[in-house]
Specification:
Structural class: mainly beta
CATH topology: Beta-galactosidase, Chain A, domain 5
Number of helices: 2
Distance between the termini: 9 Å
CATH class: Mainly Beta
Strand order of the largest sheet: 10-11-12-13-22-18-17-16
Largest sheet: 8 strands, antiparallel
Helix content: under 10%
Order of helices and strands: EEEEEEEEEEEEEEEEHEEEEEEH
Radius of gyration: 19 Å
Number of domains: 1
Length: 325
């Protein structure tokens, strides 16, 4: 999870394949944390690219908005249907040994009900809580954000510690890349993961309808499969969704870092998509022993054009070979 290459100038004699994807002009990434508001804005070339939302009143931290190279938000804000969706998020359904099941995907519904079946607010009985930033560092076209979180139930019973590391790379022309690593550690007791085949991804991304397949966009995987019917529950290295909105053609690609295992994907024409865990621990309960860990690493590319003109396949290959470190 640590880094692409630093920014370089295109066209240098003997440029490597990785260098071909670096900006022609020096790019910049800056961080603007606001602890009072509970938001960390990530600026690429002086413009807000996306925001990490971690306010204590939230059921779980998440990312949003996520802006296209042209500055248009690509993720849902008001998530109807499924108001528990959080734009771009990482969560699961878990159960401590001998305890009840706590669905942190659905932590929203554990809050104070203010409108029957549709609206809830803090305090939340079950939640994922941001604890602190361990590292906030930005220099040139690269930034690193490391955060510590806790997954808890019953209004404060800690189950899992999460360490999340995000490396952001400015690619020029408003494009950017997030290299994300999630590490979960069982704290004081063993924890069973309960998510099924249908209702989870690690992580989820939910696009605005106008960017989605329902809005005329294209879901495409590295295998050449297109659309929900051909990509959902299929093994893939990456999935891209692109569309033309207000004259701008752009897309979001999610990369599964190669770990020697098959990862099947959740894809939905209405805008949700993301990779699942490896087949051996996906769609069936498994237990993480006390002190045990499980990891997931993904890349998120926000690019101009469709998958072909956005060079998604080439960029995935360089990511998989760690050429961007």
């Amino acid at each position: 999870m640590n880094a692409f290459l630093a920014a370089a100038v295109l066209g240098l004699a003997g440029a490597t394949a990785a260098q071909a994807f670096l900006p022609a002009r020096p790019a910049s990434v800056t961080l603007q944390p606001d602890d009072k508001a509970g938001r960390l804005a990530v600026m690429v070339d002086g413009r807000e690219a996306f925001v990490y939302q971690y306010a204590p009143t939230l059921d779980l931290p998440h990312y949003g908005p996520l802006n296209s190279p042209g500055g248009r938000n690509m993720l849902v804000r008001k998530t109807e249907p499924y108001p528990h969706h959080r734009s771009f998020w990482f969560a699961d359904t878990v159960r401590p040994k001998g305890g009840r099941e706590a669905s942190l995907y659905n932590a929203y519904y554990s809050g104070l009900e203010i409108s029957p079946k549709t609206a809830y607010e803090a305090p939340f009985k079950d939640r994922i809580r941001h604890l602190e930033f361990v590292r906030l560092e930005a220099k040139g076209g690269r930034a690193v954000v490391e955060a510590r979180l806790v997954w808890e139930m019953d209004a404060g019973r800690p189950l899992l510690e999460e360490r999340r590391t995000m490396t952001v790379h400015a690619l020029g022309g408003g494009e950017y890349f997030l290299d994300l690593a999630f590490k979960l550690t069982a704290l004081d007791e063993e924890v069973e993961f309960r998510s099924d085949d249908v209702h989870y991804a690690w992580p989820y991304v939910r696009l605005e309808k106008r960017w989605s397949g329902e809005g005329g966009g294209t879901i495409l995987s590295d295998t050449g499969a297109a659309g929900e019917a051909a990509t959902n529950m299929q093994v893939a290295k990456w999935v891209d969704v692109s569309n033309t909105v207000e004259g701008e053609t752009a897309g979001v690609a999610v990369f599964q870092y190669p770990d020697g295992a098959n990862h099947r994907w959740l894809t939905r024409e209405y805008g949700c998509f993301g990779p699942r865990r490896p087949d051996g621990v996906s769609g069936k309960p498994f237990v993480l022993l006390k002190g045990g860990t499980i990891r997931q690493r993904v890349g998120v590319l926000v690019h101009t054009g469709d998958a072909k003109s956005g060079r998604v396949a080439e960029r995935y290959d360089d990511y998989a070979k760690d050429k961007f470190r």
